[in-house]
Each structure stands twice: as C-alpha cells, then as structure tokens.
C-alpha cells in the first residue's frame, strides 16, 4: 500500500507514450535489425484487438519503448492573507513613544478691576 498524500485531490497525471520499436526482426538470422518505427500508432480503436498493433510497423505495442511522463498537477490556489498579515505587522510593531509634555504657559492677566459699588446704600 502506497501512502497517499493527504489533503489533496490533485494527483500527478502519468502520460504513457510508446516510442521507438525495438523489435529485432533479424533475431532469427542471428543479427540485429529494427524496422525503424519511431512511434507506436494504434491500428484499431480502443477496446479492439488491433488496439495494440502498430499501424506503421505492424508490431505489438510491447515491442515499442514505453515512456512514462509524470505531469505534476498545477499548484493549488491559495488566498493571500492580505489584511490579516498587515494587521499582524501593525500589532507586532512597538507602540509609538509617548509625546513629551508640553510646557504650560500661564497667561497672566491683569487683575480685574474691582467692581464699582454703590456708595450710597451702605448700612
Ligand atoms: Zn515495429
């Protein structure tokens, strides 16, 4: 049992290709000769017996070199935490230094003039 990675639906797509025909047509003669077929082309439709016969060299597909290419799935899209990251940076920054106390300037006004009193109503 191969361990499957968790949490991901996307799996790598394995593309199988059959390329050069490696069948030795001169094996009965003690030599070595290939037909020069460079790529397997199925003769019949999928599901038919002729599916595995090459249309170019009429050899079985197993004589052709099998190449597997693993196509990695596209990376999953992630949402960039824009606002949250900025909020964290703001929270991590030190607080601004306290402002120095402003000097208090006392404005000295001349004392108010004494109110005028009625001189005639004193008892
Ligand atoms: Zn062939």
From TrEMBL:
The signal peptide annotation in the UniProt record is: 1-28
| All copies of domain ZF-HD dimerization-type, residue ranges | 18-67
**InterPro entries per record:** ZF_HD_homeobox_Cys/His_dimer
Give the Pro residues compositional bias ranges: 93-115
Asked if the Swiss-Prot or TrEMBL record annotates the protein with the keyword Signal, the reply is yes
Report keywords, A-Z.
Answer: Metal-binding, Signal, Zinc, Zinc-finger
Q: Which Pfam families match?
A: ZF-HD_dimer (PF04770)
Q: Which GO terms describe its molecular function?
A: zinc ion binding
Segments carrying the region annotation (Disordered) are 69-123
Say if the entry is tagged with keyword Zinc. yes
Report biased composition (Basic residues) as residue ranges: 76-85
| UniProt cross-references to PANTHER family, sorted A to Z | ZINC-FINGER HOMEODOMAIN PROTEIN 2
Quote the protein name from its UniProt record.
Answer: Zinc-finger homeodomain protein 8-like
State the organism named in the record.
Answer: Forsythia ovata
User: What is the organism lineage in this UniProt record?
Assistant: Eukaryota, Viridiplantae, Streptophyta, Embryophyta, Tracheophyta
């Amino acid at each position: 049992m191969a361990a499957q990675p968790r949490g991901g639906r996307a799996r790598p797509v394995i593309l199988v290709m059959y390329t050069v025909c490696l069948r030795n047509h001169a094996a009965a003669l003690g030599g070595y000769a290939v037909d020069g077929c460079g790529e397997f082309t199925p003769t019949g439709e999928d599901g038919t017996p002729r599916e595995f016969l090459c249309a170019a060299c009429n050899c079985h597909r197993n004589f052709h070199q099998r190449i597997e290419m693993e196509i990695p799935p596209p990376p999953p899209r992630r949402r960039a935490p824009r606002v949250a990251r900025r909020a964290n940076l703001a929270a991590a920054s030190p607080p601004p230094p306290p402002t120095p106390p402003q000097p208090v300037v006392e404005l000295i006004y001349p004392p108010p003039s004494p109110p005028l009193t009625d001189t005639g109503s004193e008892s």
